[in-house]
Amino acid sequence: MFSQFFGNFLLSKGVVTTEQLLRAIKEQHSRHLKVGTLAIHNGYMTANEVDNIVIRQTHEDKRFGEIAIEEGYLTEDQLTTLLQAQTPDYLLIGQILVDDGVLTNSQLEELITTYHTENKLSELNGEHKENLDALIRNLMLLSITDMPEHLTKYLNLLFNNLVRFVGEDFTPLNPRFCSEYVTDHCSGQVIDGDFQIVSYVDVDRETAISFASRYVGEEFSEFDEYVQASIEDFLNLHNGLFNVNVSNENSIELHLNPPLSMENTMLSSVDDSILLPILYPFGVLNFLFKV
Questions:
Q1: Which three-class secondary structure string do you get for the chain?
Q2: For the segment 261-287, what is each residue's pLDDT rounded down to a tens digit?
Q3: Do both 148 and 104 map to the same domain?
């Protein structure tokens, strides 16, 4: 999950473009993490030391770890630890951007440190839920200074459901308040009871086709009622799971109203709603929330 928020972090810092980030996201499943990237992340080596080894490798046919031990940058135990460690997935995004010449190792080192500090990610192998909640709160601070706990839970589940049912290759873009919104192909649903959440997901035609193909696991080539129904079904599935979780964890009863599909419709009652775009390689999913 951390790679998705790392992408937003890089965009917000202005160090990458959307196109550069999308290219890195698309390539992450065909690349593997390098020892140098892992060593920087674990604090075993500096970016300059990694660069020195890369230069040596242009003249010597030796593995990175072998040279690092020769230079005294790593011990054999440290190298073994790096090769066996379970590492956060966002590191691969950073490494690809370095390989593509978008960032230097020194820039990546600094960005990783800042990312950890701003999001309080000092213990990435600890409680992931707590870390994800912190990432969500920091993301939404751009719009909400005092975010309700139930919205944090709602978004936490949303990001996990996107990974489970659509794909992990997304990045949330910066949210903003939205006073009015004209839909393209949209589904909306109301959760009410002890509190209320009104949610919408809106996409353009081509994005809807690609979304449905991933969600259903069947290749669609044109927009039809099945494609539209997949958008509605995802929202209904997510909101249903949210209601069950809240009921089980907090003994709160919520009512889930039937979802509605709307096309080219002005949503005139979205004052104080939050627009949260989710960027996938195939397009943007625009989520709107009113709490």
A1: CHHHHHHHHHHHHCCCCHHHHHHHHHHHHHCCCCHHHHHHHCCCCCHHHHHHHHHHHCCCCCCHHHHHHHHCCCCHHHHHHHHHCCCCCHHHHHHHHHHCCCCCHHHHHHHHHHHHHHHCCCCCCCCHHHHHHHHHHHHHCCCCCCCCHHHHHHHHHHHHHHHHHCCCCCEECCCEEECCEECCEEEEEEEEECCCEEEEEEECHHHHHHHHHHHHCCCCCCCCHHHHHHHHHHHHHHHHHHHHHHHHHHCCCEEECCCEEEECCEECCCCCEEEEEEEECCEEEEEEEEC
A2: 988 888 876 557 889 999 999 999 999
A3: no
Of 100, 123, 146, the position where a domain reaches its end is: 123
pLDDT > 90 in the chain, percent: 55
Structural domain boundaries enclosing 34: 2-123
Stated pTM of the model: 0.78
Q: Are residues 169 and 270 in the same domain?
A: yes
pLDDT tens digits for range 219-273: 999 999 999 999 999 999 999 999 998 988 888 889 999 999 988 888 876 557 8
Q: What is the mean pLDDT of the chain?
A: 87
